[in-house]
Amino acid sequence: MLLKYFYDSNLAQASYMVGCQQSNEAVIIDPARDITPYVETASKEGMKIIGSFETHIHADFVAGSRELAAQEGATMYLSDEGSDDWKYENLENTPHQLVKDGDQIKVGNLTFTVLHTPGHTPESISFTLVDGGIPAQEPMGIFTGDFVFVGDVGRPDLLEKAAKMEGTSEDGAKQMFASLQKFKQLPDYLQLWPGHGAGSACGKALGAVPSSTVGYEKKYNWALQYENENEFSKELLDGQPEPPTYFAVMKHVNKVGPTLIKELSSVEKLQSVSEIEKLVDKGVQVIDTRPAAKFAEKYVPGTVNIPFNSSFTNWAGWLIDYKRSLSLIVEAESIKEIEKALHSVGIDQLSSYLDARLIEESQGDFGSYPSVRPIEAKQLFDQDKVNIIDVRNLSEWNEGHIEGAKHLMLGTLKDHLDEVPTDKPVLVQCGSGVRSAIGVSVLKSNGFEEVINLTGGYSQWLQDVKK
């Protein structure tokens, strides 16, 4: 048997290749939209990808099952569990098989058995794996998707918070409790292969270890220590992070099927800063992916700064309007990687880009913004010269915040601009100064003229001011 692990650190998303080395056939568990790593690995290992398994309709990334079906002829194995609201659509011209609890799928000497494990979503399923080539009669492991993670379980509130399906959070928590009772009956020795690691918004306490065992999770996973459904539900729903707004888009895209990558329009390379300025004037959203320090010194007015780093994909999903045309300012050699990151969360409307070097080499009417350290910020605040906007998550705010600050989480800032005070300059603050820099650019692009970033954020404030 062949087992390969793939991990997208930008999305904290795990996928797996499982193959039978006798039949040279392989399947991909929860494939990402960029299928190149799977195809290249299969070729290297002498495998043919014959199928893809999805544990549920994903909300945080675009699944690559239809890409594998179109390019490799792979059959999509999809859940047929749950309510009619969460059934896959537009499958008529794509090789697929709908599966239910107890169904078995044979891949050479390998046998996968479907377990319906609702809670995160109604249609969620897991797959146990038996390696018949050993030969073995019992499973060696389980692919849990967003059901059980290392140290946590999938959150049940996304349908309500992101997809606006009222009343589903409590129902999901009850379903999760029942699914965990089924999980507790599994053998302790089973290896556990989850769909996410630390940093995913699909849970609140995910571990950074890529795999575990059923027995270890029974003993140490907080969610498996509860015997009372009501107490479990209360703890599960309490303190869940804000779900990114793009989760609702992802649910729809994965349900009806995304556009194939090969069918997307090509991206034009712009030749001058004036072309970007004209796009801004026309209402095209322009994202500048340079580091915050460079943007602060010199930027095209009307653009928003989302630096291309490990958190780029997350904030792009939060802040980019999926319904508007998009242009980028990038370091030219990074454009392909940035395109891939955008595609992974369904941002397919990119039309053009400008080499960032043209910004740095040009003269003209550019914008800039100042930053201050906590001591300077304290003086401004004490003199009533600034209003403070805290753009951290609600859980961070609840743990402690600057007295007198107003909380507007970064991902929702653009939807609450009318709540930003305008009687004096605005000081934007987060935990370290990274998110607040993005927040400054959001405010500046929306007409707020006097905006300041707090470098070091709340953590530095505690050290310098709250000694």
List keywords for this structure.
single chain; 467 residues; alpha/beta; 6-stranded mixed beta sheet; globular
Can you describe what's shown?
By secondary structure, the chain is of the alpha/beta class. 30% of the residues lie in helices and 22% in strands. The chain is built from 16 helices and 24 strands. The chain has helices at residues 36-45, 65-72, 158-161, 168-183, 214-220, 229-237, 246-256, 273-281, 292-297, 312-319, 335-344, 357-361, 374-382, 394-399, 434-445, 457-464, and strands spanning 2-8, 13-20, 25-29, 48-53, 75-79, 96-99, 104-107, 110-116, 125-131, 141-145, 148-149, 152-153, 191-194, 212-213, 268-269, 285-288, 304-305, 326-330, 350-355, 371-372, 387-390, 406-407, 426-429, 451-454. The strands form five sheets. A six-stranded mixed sheet has the order 1-2-3-4-5-6, covered by helices on one side. Strands 7-8-9-10-13-14 form a six-stranded mixed sheet. A five-stranded parallel sheet has the order 15-19-18-16-17. A hairpin with an 8-residue loop joins strand 8 (110-116) and strand 9. Helix 4 packs across helix 6 (229-237). The protein is globular, with a radius of gyration of 24 Å. The mean pLDDT is 94.
